[in-house]
From TrEMBL:
Homotetramer. It comes from Bacteroides graminisolvens DSM 19988 = JCM 15093. Substrate binds at residues 172-175, 180. Its main location: cytoplasm. It comes from the Bacteria. Keywords: ATP-binding, Cytoplasm, DNA synthesis, Kinase, Metal-binding, Nucleotide-binding, Transferase, Zinc. GO terms for cellular component: cytosol. It catalyses: thymidine + ATP = dTMP + ADP + H(+). Pfam families: TK. The active site is at residue 96. One of its GO terms (biological process) is thymidine metabolic process. The gene is tdk. This is Thymidine kinase. It is found in: Cytoplasm. InterPro entries: P-loop_NTPase, Thymidine_kinase.
Amino acid sequence: MVLFSEDQIHETKMRGRIEVICGSMFSGKTEELIRRLKRAKYAKQRVEIFKPAIDVRYSEENVVSHDSNTIASTPIDSSASILLFTSEIDVVGIDEAQFFDDGLIDVCNQLANNGVRVIIAGLDMDFKGKPFGPMPGLCAIADEVSKVHAICMKCGQLASFSHRTVKSDKQVLLGETAEYEPLCRTCYNRAIEEDKNNL
Ligand SMILES: Nc1ncnc2c1ncn2[C@@H]1O[C@H](COP(=O)(O)OP(=O)(O)O)[C@@H](O)[C@H]1O
Ligand SMILES: Cc1cn([C@H]2C[C@H](O)[C@@H](COP(=O)(O)O)O2)c(=O)[nH]c1=O
Ligand SMILES: [Zn+2]
């Protein structure tokens, strides 16, 4: 699998395609998204970046990684708004895609069919280990999916799961290290068993 995109044709030539960067929290999705978008800007491409307006964790306007890398973005409430901002655009970046409606799948297909390179970052699974929002559909239509991993906070192996450490059953609960920890499959299953026993 090609983990990081360094393909000259994909990066600098006008050709519609969909790239998905997915994984658990703290796996480097936003950093990788920002890296690809900054490279597109160096290549003098016209770039537009979107995030869900509900994601006000680090900034209302910018896309910001856990390591404080940042890039300016347009916060929007609905995936349909993306089409209003993307005439004359070469590359579209979307962060926290799991929070968008399912209409995002059609929007991304339309953009790619019109020659736009679409780069999407999002959580593939919620805290219950279930597929999150439009992410499975986006993975299905993507030309390339990069699954990235955090480091398990309990054993140091690669982590694919986001364990919620506070009591809440809502699917959407914004948070960082005070609310979530990335865990590998073994440590996640153990933590879920412990959570059940502590109810
Ligand atoms: N357990 C962890 N494993 C890996 N990176 C971590 C961990 N905890 C904190 N980080 C930090 O998170 C950064 C990745 O942040 P970010 O790109 O925002 O991730 P994501 O968008 O996937 O949540 C890493 O560079 C590192 O500084
Ligand atoms: C697992 C999980 C996460 N969230 C929230 C928590 C954060 O605000 C974002 C994920 O951000 P990151 O850039 O991937 O670290 O999503 C949630 O609402 N529900 C969940 O199940
Ligand atoms: Zn582990």
